[in-house]
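User: My advisor, Dr. K., asked me to get a structural model of this assembly before our group meeting. I'm new to this, so sorry if the format is off. These are the inputs:
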Amino acid sequence: MKIPLVDLKANYESVKPEIDAAIKKIIDNSSFIMGQPVKDFEEHFAKAVRMPHTIGVANGTVAVELALRTLKLAPGDEVILPANTFIATSEAVTAVGAACVFVDVEDDSLNISPEGIRRVITPKTKAIIAVHLYGRMADMDAVMAIAEEHRLAVIEDAAQAHLAEFKGDMPGERSGMASYSFFPAKNLGAFGDAGAVVCREDHLAKHISMMRNHGRLGKYEHEFEAYNMRLDALQAAILDAKLPHLATWTEQRITLARRYDRLLKGIVETPPVHPDCKHVYYMYVIRTPQRDKLQAFLKEKGIETGIHYPIPLHLQPAYAYLDHKEGDFPVAEQAAKDILSIPIYPELTEEQQDYIVRAIKEFFRKK
Ligand SMILES: *Cc1c(COP(=O)(O)O)cnc(C)c1O
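Assistant: The format is fine. Below is the predicted structure of the whole assembly, which you can bring to the meeting.
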C-alpha cells in the first residue's frame, strides 16, 4: 500500500463536477482579476469563519504581512511570535520592517507559550502573532490577557486552522484580525497560491482591500502606493466551490483523529486533546524519541510522513543575526526532534488508517 501525507487528487475527485464547472465558468467569462467570483468567495468565507470581513489575497504569507501593515509598525518595533512555525510568519514581520522576537512554545499544544511572551516584552513590543499550529488554536485567553495588559495588537496566523475554535471562538473573533492560507495542502486548498485576511473593523478591511490592489480608489486613481497581492478569480471560484464541503471535511478529519487516538493509545504519544479547543487536524502529530527510525520504517512500508518543523526558526540560518543558540527554547527544540506528522485527510479510508496503525505497532514491537 502507498499512502501519501496529503492526497490532493482524492480531494479533487470527491468534488470534481463542481470544481470543473466553476473553472469553466471563469474561463467562459474570461474575467480573471477581481470581480464577482472574488466577492462571492469573500462573502461566503466571512460567514463560514464568523468574521465581518474577508479580503482575498495572493497567498497566506502576504495575508500575514497585510494584517501586520494595518498596525503601521516603525523600524525597531518588535513583534513576538513562536519559534515553532513555518517561516512565512516571521518573513511577514521582517517584510513590514519590524523585528522578530521568538519565544518558546508550550509542551502540550506546541503553540506559543504565554510565559514566554511575558519574558520578552519590552517598551518596543507592538504585537503578538498567535499561530494556531496544526489546526489547534493557541491559548487565546492567555494571549489576549497579556495583550490587553500591555496594550499590544494580536494577529492570528490561522493558515492551518480553518474552522478551528477556542472556547467557541474562531480565529480573529477575539483579536479582530486573522490570516488564512489556501495553499493546496491546507484544510481549504486552492489549485495554486491563495490566502485571505479576515477582520472585524470596517476601516481596516477597506485599508487591506486597497493595499492588495495598488491603493486603488478607481481604475486609475490611487490613494497610496501599495501592492499587487490580489486573490485570483480562478482560485476564488475553486475555493468557493470547495467551501460548502469544508465543515464536513473538518468533521472527517476530527473523526479520523479520534480513531488514531484510540488505536495508538499506549503505543505512541498522540496529540493531547483539550476540551477548550476544536482542533481541526491540519496535521496529526505524534511524538517519539525514535522519530527518525519510525519515519524511515514507515517510508519502507509506503507511508509518507512529515516533520512540522525540523528546525525551529530561532536556529535557522536565516535568523543567525539574532544570535540564538541551542538551548534557548528547549520545548521547541525537543519537539523538532520527536514530532512526526502522519497522514490525515478527509479521504483517508479506515483501511488506510488501519494499515498505518499496524505499521506503527510493528515498529514499536520490534524495539
Ligand atoms: C502555510 C502557512 C503560511 C503561508 O501560507 P502560503 O499560502 O504558503 O503563503 C503561513 N503561516 C503558516 C503557519 C502556514 O502554515
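One thing worth pointing out at the meeting: Residues 59-61, 85-86, 88-89, 131, 157, 159-160, 181, 183, 193, 195 surround pyridoxal-5'-phosphate (CB under 6 Å).

User: Perfect, thanks a lot.
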